[in-house]
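U., I forgot to send this yesterday:
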Amino acid sequence: MTEIQEAIRPVVALGQAVGQAQVVLSRLLADVLAGTGTSPETYLAIGRLTVLGGGAAHDAYIFDLSDWLELDLWTAGELAASLISSGVLTEADGAVWLSPRGEELRRKIDGSVSAMTGALLAPLDGADVETTIRTLQEVTARAAVLRVR
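Result:
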């Protein structure tokens, strides 16, 4: 019985720590986004296009949004269309990319997030932060595999 309880204890602590971090960090991000008038969906969609190199084939971008943001294809398409119509993205010849307005918005958000992140992480040991990031990436990848099963 003691072995089971000891094995469960770190999982519960990890879940609580991640959950609490998610709530607090999400609130900080929401404050940054509110300062730029940006919705979380727009922020995430800009981030996905940035990961894709700043531009992508329109259909590939829709599939990427659907996959990464866990949206159905219709909703992902509507999100992309709204970003195009609002001038955040530009579309031509079957491709989308960040418009100058979208680039400026990304830079503004990134600057605010970087300043906040720097203040949060400054007192921490860099090696500890790197280990935490690698651990969270691995846990996230494993959790994604578990969700597929």
